[in-house]
TrEMBL record:
Keywords: Oxidoreductase. GO terms for molecular function: oxidoreductase activity. It comes from Exidia glandulosa HHB12029. Pfam families: adh_short. Transmembrane segments: none annotated. This is NAD(P)-binding protein.
């Protein structure tokens, strides 16, 4: 496992120097995504186009104010999107596809902690799984042509989904109930979201062989993820998080270690919070992966 000082040294060495990277961070207005945005901005030293996709323009502007001043032609921009609706995601991906020349880094970290039961969205899927999985799949799938443009130019091209790269398992694929209408529980929802992220990484890497796709667990990070928990639980999780968690910029450096890692230029990768490969992955069969792909296309395509 690389020490944190080794992570810092590797990031400094591997940061792209001869290009102006374009980074799109969905969920970058808070927590782990914010940490990655701050670290990317630090290494780019003002020479980057960074797009934060989220709900809070106020949070994005506060983050941009802490970034190095953009040099000529570089810029920081906020794009508003509630990602629980695939129609909303489609509006944003079509907008980005119409005006960006390329994407080098696509970072997906939207999430929420909630004890609520299944809450169907207009797409017929659960709200929490839409935020943790379907929207992420749609961003990666719709924006793949822009990622391919960066790889064709010989530039680094990475997709990083931040959720839980340990827990996904074949038991998360129920061919007769892919949207968990019949088998919903908090545990099954978490299993499905992590398993579908695992499968999507493999399916996307197969279809876009010049792009690198990673699924990483961020570890325990001091974020605002528990904000919607009931009183008491919120205080307790907040206290535990403060005692044993990492700051978001530490998480950012660790996640950027995977984004910059020269040893994984293409393919599907499953990473620990410290940027090591998760042992035993992938553990899904080709049939499971294809089922996840087909189901995701059915839910997300054409919206
Ligand atoms: N923190 C940890 O210790 C930890 C551990 C393991 C896994 N994770 C996973 O890592 C991911 C990031 O978590 P985090 O701790 O960084 O959480 P966080 O601080 O709450 O950040 C989550 C981000 O998702 C955005 N978001 C939530 N719902 C959205 C929606 N409907 N539309 C658009 N944006 C939405 C939030 O935006 P708003 O600010 O607008 O709500 C926020 O920017 C999550 O998937 C989480 O499960 C976290």
């Amino acid at each position: 496992m690389p020490s944190f000082s080794a992570v810092l040294a590797a990031n400094k060495q591997n940061a792209p120097k001869a290009i102006r990277p374009v980074a799109v961070l969905v969920g970058g207005t808070s927590g782990c995504g914010r940490g990655v945005a701050e670290v990317l901005a630090k290494y780019a030293q003002g020479n980057a186009h960074i797009v934060l996709v989220g709900r809070s323009e106020e949070a994005a502007n506060e983050i941009f104010a802490s970034f190095p001043k953009p040099v000529d032609g570089a810029k920081y921009e906020f794009v508003k999107c509630d990602v629980s609706s695939m129609r909303n995601v489609g509006i944003v991906t079509r907008d980005l596809a119409s005006r960006l020349d390329k994407i080098n880094y696509l970072v997906l970290s939207t999430g929420l902690l909630s004890l609520a039961g299944r809450r169907p969205t207009e797409d017929g899927v659960d709200y929490k799984i839409a935020v943790h999985y379907y929207s992420r799949f749609k961003f990666a799938h719709d924006l793949a042509p822009l990622l391919e443009k960066a790889s064709t130019a010989g530039e680094p091209t990475r997709v990083l989904t931040i959720l839980d790269s340990f827990m996904g398992a074949p038991s998360g694929v129920r061919p007769d109930d892919m949207t968990l209408e019949k088998n919903y529980s908090l545990q099954n929802a978490a299993l499905v979201a992590t398993t579908y992220n695992d499968g999507a990484i493999a399916a996307l890497a197969k279809r876009y062989p010049t792009v690198s796709f990673s699924h990483a667990n961020p570890g325990i990070v001091n974020t605002n993820a528990h904000r919607d928990m009931p009183f008491g639980i919120k205080q307790l999780t907040g206290l535990v998080a403060t005692l044993i968690s990492s700051p978001i910029t530490t998480c950012g450096e660790n996640m950027v270690y995977t984004l910059f890692d020269p040893s994984i230029p293409t393919g599907a990768h499953y990473r620990t919070p410290k940027g090591e490969d998760v042992k035993g992955k992938p553990n899904l069969s080709d049939a499971d992966i294809e089922k996840i792909w087909q189901h995701s296309i059915e839910i997300c395509d054409g919206k």
